[in-house]
Amino acid sequence: MPPTFLWATAEDSLVPVQHSLRMSYALAEKNIPFELHIFEKGSHGLALADQSSARTQGQINSDAAKWTELAGNWLEKRFALPIEE
Questions:
Q1: Can you tell me the distance from the alpha carbon of 38 to that of 85, in angstroms, rounded to the nearest whole number?
Q2: Partner of 67 at 20 to 30 A CA spacing, among 5, 29, 35, 39?
Q3: Helix (H, G, I), strand (E, B) or coil at 74
Q4: CA–CA separation, 67 vs 57, rounded Å?
């Protein structure tokens, strides 16, 4: 299993937040690197959670939309090649 980035919302009614918590526990038990972010609000299927992916106003969530920046930072920390000066 590769290093894993997880994000969820606490009020997702389709996939309970406990699934993400269980996944993080399983990764931790196997010493697999992971990062987990749980946002308080947001329905299932937010995608990017901004206007670029939203079909309805309810799919725009400024807090959850931060997951893309968080994921980008995480990927850079884990996989960026060192830059020589």
A1: 37
A2: 29
A3: helix
A4: 18
| Ordered DSSP codes for 16-34 | -HHHHHHHHHHHHHTT--E
**For the whole model, what pTM was predicted?**
0.81
- Dig out the tokens for 5 from the structure: 């980035």
Print pLDDT tens along the chain (85 aa): 999 999 999 999 899 999 999 999 999 999 999 999 999 987 776 766 666 576 666 666 677 889 899 999 999 998 887 778 7
Q: Which residues contact 12 (CB under 8 A, 6 or more apart)?
A: 42, 43, 44
